[in-house]
C-alpha cells in the first residue's frame, strides 16, 4: 500500500536534492505515481501502491493522512478508512479498538504533523536520530545521510536471525519507529511514549467459547477484505495449519481466491495442496521458483540489481541472489491490484518457541532461540555475552518490562513471539509486500493475539487449538491430510507430539548450544537456496568480502543461509560504499 519519504525543510534548498534522490530510489523500488506532501517542518512525497490496489492518501484542504501498508479503521478500508481516521484523529493515537492491519502513517492536522505505526510496529518506518529524514524506504533514508556505519549488533542479528529485532537496523544512523512511541514532526521532533498492554494471565474460558470468540474475530476481519476485493485475492496453501486456516477464513467469507503453493513436485507441501485443490475444485497454481528461468552468470548482475532495489536491500529469504523467480512470484500475487493473503504469525496459536510450560528469564529465552551462531564464523568484533545482553534488553522492552530481573511468567514469554519475533521477521515481509498493494495477515492482529495469549500452553502444544479452530470454521478443509501425517480434525499423532516434546524438554542452556553442535556435524543448507557459487556471486561482489570480513570469518561459514545473508550485507555495503565510514 505504497510508501512515503519526508525530509526536514532547509533554507539552502538541500531538501530539493534529497527529494529528487529519494524519488529516484523509489522509482527503482518500482513506484511510478507520487503525490507531494508538506508540513510545517518537512517536505516530501507519498508513493501510490505499485500495483494500484486502492487509495492510501487522503487530503482535506491543508490536512492529510498518508499511509503505507494496510489500514483498517472503523471496519472501513481504503479511502473510507482514511477519511474516518483523519476526522477522528487525536494525538497520541490510542484508538486501537477501531484500527487494525500493519501500516505506517503520517497525519497532518490543524498545522501539526504526526508519525505512528500499527499496534506492533510491524510496518517499518526508518528515521535518523533527529528525524531530519523519515521514510518507509531503508535505501532512500540511508542515501539521504552523509555517512553510515555498520552496527555490529544489527549486522549479527541480520546474519544469524534474518532481521534485527527491536528498533535496530544494520546501520547505526538509522532506527525504526517502535510500537512504544509516536512522534510529532515539528521544528524539533517530540517523542510521546505510548503503552499497549496485552494480557498477562491465563483465562478460565472453556475451549469451546475460546474457539467461537477467535473465529468471530477472524471472520470479522475477513469480511472487510472480502467486501473490498471479492475473489481478487491470492492465498497460499501448504501442508501445514496456518495457510489452511487463512484459506478457511476466505471460503467462510464467500471468497474463492486464487490458491498457490511454492515448491517442487513431490514436496509434501505441494502434494498436500494439490490433493485438496483436486477434490475442492478451486483455482490452484504450484510454482517452483528455482525452475522459473535458466540464467547465465552474464544475466546475473541485472537480476540481482533489480531484486536489491525492489526488496529495499534487506531481503529476508533467497530473493536477492536468485534467477528472478522470487520477484516474479511476488508481483504475480498482487498484479492488477489483487489482495495478497498470508498465514504469517499463525504460530501465535502454538508454542512457537517450543519451551516448557514454566517461568524462565528473558536471557534464557534469548539464548535458547536467538543464539544461532558458532564462534568459528565470527571475528573478535563479536561479543557473545554482549550480543545476548542486548537481545535481553530488547526483549524486556518489547513486553513493557524494561530492566526487569528474575523469571518471566509464561504468558509474558509468549508475548515475545508477536512483539519481538513477528515484528522483526514478518515486519520486513509486510514492508516489502505492502509497497506493492494491500496485504492481509489475519493472525497478526492485536485482538487475535490478545486472545491467544490467554490460552494455556497445553492447548498450543502440537497445534491442538489451531486445529480445533480450523475444524470449527471449515470442517471440510480440516478433514484433508496434512504434511504432519494426520488430518486436522483428528488429534495429533504420537510421533508428532513426541517430536515437539523432544525440543521442549531440552534445557535452555543446551538449546543455546544446539546450533554450534549442528554445525560441527557438517554443512547446513536452507530451503531458500540461491545462486551462491563463485561463478555467479563473483559477478556481483568481491568474494573476499572486504566490508563484512571485519565481522565474519568467511572461510569458516558452511551454513548456506548465513552465507547468503552475509553476502546480502556485502552487496549493500558495495552499494553504499561512498557513505560508509
Automatic annotation (TrEMBL):
* Record flagged with keyword Ligase: yes
* UniProt xrefs under InterPro entries: Rossmann-like_a/b/a_fold
Q: Which Gene3D superfamilies match?
A: HUPs
SUPFAM superfamilies, sorted: Adenine nucleotide alpha hydrolases-like (SSF52402)
| Keywords annotated in UniProt | Ligase
Protein's UniProt name? Asparagine synthase (Glutamine-hydrolyzing)
Top-rank lineage group of the source organism: Bacteria
Which EC main class describes this enzyme? ligase
Ligase recorded as keyword = yes
Supply the EC number(s).
Answer: 6.3.5.4
- Recorded GO MF terms: asparagine synthase (glutamine-hydrolyzing) activity
